[in-house]
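Throughout our pipeline, every protein is held as a single compact record rather than as scattered files. Nothing more is needed to write down the fold, since each code stands for a local backbone conformation. The record that follows is passed on verbatim for readers who wish to inspect the format.
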Amino acid sequence: MHRLYFIILVIKCSIFSLTAVEPESENTTDLGKLGINYTLKKSTEPIPNRIHVLRINLASKKIKPKVALGPDPYGEGPAEVSLTDPRKLASNPSVLAFVNTNPWDSFPNANGRKNRNWYPGQPVDIHGLAGTQGKMRSTTSPGNTSVWFDAQSGVHFGHGPEDKPEEATTGFQLILSKGKLTVGEGGPRHPRTSIGTDKKGEILWLVVVDGRQKSYSEGMNMHELATVMKDLGCWSATNMDGGGSSVMGLLAKDGKMKIMNSPSDRFFGRVRIRPLPMILTITKKDK
């Protein structure tokens, strides 16, 4: 009986996450006065891909990055966060845009098996540094995969014990360092999310590449993703969590948060927005 109830609950949560994602034309949404510009880039070689690019001008001083985390289910317990619909995480009126960030995983049951069907409310463990307003929900040893922001919204790649992140995220690997690719050619192609910045740290690029959608957008390997980030003008860039987690939201002209990309998860043939532990948002500063 309990198993049947759980299955019904998961189906209800999945249906709640259904959404129709409409293709966007290039430069559809422009929040340029605040320092945010969206562009859809389409490539056909070597395979079809749709690349969603947010260019964030941190030097405008009108916006700031802020991490939004799901609720902590157990306080001091092992689970750090409950998976939450990213649109709910981005529901604060000050949020202008967002992308997914850290990888995560579930906890094994008594038989050592992990449930990776991902449903809202599922308790999970965040991988890597993660926190907001100076309080870290998840910590990690010093490494070069973190992307964090100081109290003045300055962006940094990699952190050490002496650093004091205000807003913190972590990816899988650094793919661009000092303007040079740090990954080799080849490898599997998947949906991807990347965060990059220019040499001065004034321009932030948030990039999502759709994937696993044949003849529409098939995804990229690490080398292809790093090349995209370099061509945009990045000096440093990190590969964040990808696959069905890759998602980008942007405030539309009607004041509603719109999913700009086409996430790869499906439920009965329709796009399903995967619940996430956290997102990186770009918010409007208070006057």
